[in-house]
Amino acid sequence: MEIERIEIKIKKERYYFDVAILVDKEGFLDWIKSLRDKWKIKSLFDPNDYHGFYKYIWGDIKIGRWNEFSADVKKVRESFNRSPNFDEVIIYALAFKYIPDGTYKPCYLETIVDPIDPNSPEKYKYAIIVTPNTTIDDLKPILKEYQSKLATGLEQKSDSSIMEKAVAKYKFELGPHYVPPSRKSDNIIRDRDWYWLKEEGLSYKEILELSKSKNKKLDITRDGIITAIKSYKKRLTKD
Description:
This protein is mainly alpha-helical. The protein has ten helices and four strands, in the order E-H-H-H-H-H-E-E-E-H-H-H-H-H. The protein has three domains: about 10-100, no CATH class; about 105-170, no CATH class; about 190-235. Helices cover about 55% and strands about 5% of the residues.
């Protein structure tokens, strides 16, 4: 396959620059040509068909093939002194028609497996890895990415049919079963106090009278206290 200029379709100029000065470096295209020959990539994949590319590299359920491919990408990256956030850039340069927007991130999300119990996703930790190219503005979208993955993973774990479809499409998300609390916590201290007063044996009426004696301006009914305590108890039943 004849190696031509690698097309970059990244909108943010700073990100475009970071990618361009890698893929246009002397020797980079030699690496690309060598690996395209090794992996018999005779026609480039459409960037929207990552699943097709992944399936091709994976082969006939040969796990070692993907590991070997990843090792090759790592060799390229390390030969140019780049950090792991350039792996996707190299993959797209190697196997796809162009490098799409969103491929490169100057910082990235990394899953840290528990060394004692590596098969337990509940014990995974997550870190945002910064690089010399990272700015404060780069951190926010990575945090949003993590939150999105967490929400997707929780949805998949709650419904086996959703999980099966995700696995079939290589889109399943690992991660903890822990459900993040609601951002709305205006009355969390008050509601917790009421919850414990009820646990200690006070009636809802007694909790209401005690609370109003402490705060003359408190505008709530017995039913309101019941609702608040039930809401707090419901939160405690989640992981």
